[in-house]
Amino acid sequence: MSDETPASYGRQRTAAAKNRTAIIDAAHELFAKNPLVPLSDVAKRAGVGIGTLYRHFPTRDDLILAAYRHDIERMTASADEVLQRQASAKAAFIEWFETLAGYIRVKHGLGDALHSAAAQQVVAESWGPTAAAVAKLLDACVAEGTVAPGHDPVDVIMLMSFLWRVAPTDEGVAQGRRIISTVFNGLSSPA
């Protein structure tokens, strides 16, 4: 006879969910610094054993995709918060895209894991929420008069994709800001 009760089963599920979240958060942080970080370092940072990590993520690619999905979900959900924090919708738009670019640069450093069929499904799933976040930012910019109405959010994402190609250096950041300025000149309402 099992000693497991509904209450103990609930505690185990809660602990497993906390472990999964801790692993994903640790992976996000460590992959940003070094995409080739050993998974034992991820487990250590998350405060779990390597067996626990592998129970949640049987392969390195599984963990990379989970961290990527989590980052994109967090990013797309942040549009409202960025709009509330910034003094202008234009500043929020710029901050949001610079943050997105940082996530994408990490993605490019993760190599083959993000070129698999499973990864392409994750990327495809992220388009809708990402386009919705960009639409929200565009609408706010239109309302403040810094962007002309009628721009397609997916077109803007494609246009802004230059950001994940600039170098993650001070020079790259400066180059990105110059190009963002050029993009805004093109998106702006006529004087």
Which key features would you list for this structure?
TetR/AcrR family transcriptional regulator; 191 residues; transcription regulation; 2 domains; elongated; Tet_transcr_reg_TetR-rel_C_sf; Tetracycline Repressor, domain 2; Homeodomain-like_sf; Arc Repressor Mutant, subunit A; DNA-binding; mainly alpha
Quick summary of this structure?
Residues 17-75 form the HTH tetR-type domain. The protein is mostly helical and 191 residues long.
Description of the molecule:
- This protein has 9 helices and no strands.
- The model has no long low-confidence stretch (mean pLDDT 84).
- The longest helix has 28 residues, at 6-33.
- Helices cover 74% and strands 0% of the residues.
- It has 2 domains: 1-58, Arc Repressor Mutant, subunit A (Orthogonal Bundle), CATH 1.10.10.60; 60-191, Tetracycline Repressor, domain 2, CATH 1.10.357.10.
- With 191 residues, the chain is mainly α.
- Keywords: DNA-binding, Transcription, Transcription regulation.
- Residues 17-75 form the HTH tetR-type domain.
- Residues 38-57 bind DNA.
- This is TetR/AcrR family transcriptional regulator.
Topology (SSEs and partners):
Elements: H1 6-33, H2 39-46, H3 50-56, H4 60-77, H5 79-85, H6 89-108, H7 117-144, H8 153-160, H9 170-187
Helix pairs in contact: 1-2, 1-4, 4-6, 4-7, 5-6, 6-7, 7-8
